[in-house]
Amino acid sequence: MESPKLGIIMLDTSFQRPLGDIGNPATYSFPVEYRVVESATVERVVKKGDSSLVPLIIKSARELEKKGVKAIKTSCGFLALFQNEIQHALNVPFFSSSLIQLPIVHSLAGGSIGVLTASKASLSRKHLQGVNAENIPIIIEGMDTMPAFTQAIVEECMSLDMKAVEREIKHKVKNMIRSNPEIKAILLECTNMPPYRTAIREITELPIFDINTLIHYILKAT
């Protein structure tokens, strides 16, 4: 059996994972190995930035290293807070967040980047500092007030309605671009947003970057 090429550290969640989502192994054309960090809830990671989870994440990452993975990713971009600490504990490339792409996207696009995040209220300068992107010109838009997305993915109190989430994401991206014409590219912070990439393409010709563009880029180098 072929060794897994990518290790993915998952938060402790139970919502649906459609094709394109990092939690759906069918998203990838190569072997993937998962580890769930029990008690690493959205509340603790996104809302609280709970550093007490770091040892548990490192433990799971080392287990994935023993499985022979070439690189390790997490299922939540808000773990950017701990990028350096976790990477220094590992021997394979570790990328906590799609936000790692911000410097290179800025270099390629030559202007501001529109960042769509699961929670604008929670995404701070510290997250950007964690991936050396605090000086990149960005416009942040969040899904905080979008009920279909928030209730299914952040609060986990309702089942996922993909059509409703698609409408919400398109609405947010459209408004962000309209209000900020200086935006030259879109970056999706949340690993649950790539399933809606095609829908976003319907409303903009701007380059779209997400966790899967980063995964394919990293794995080509390993």
From TrEMBL:
InterPro entries for this protein: Asp/Glu/hydantoin_racemase, Asp/Glu_race
Q: What name does UniProt use for this protein?
A: Aspartate/glutamate racemase family protein
Q: Name one Pfam family in it.
A: Asp_Glu_race
Citing just one GO molecular function, the answer is: amino-acid racemase activity
**What domain of life?**
Bacteria
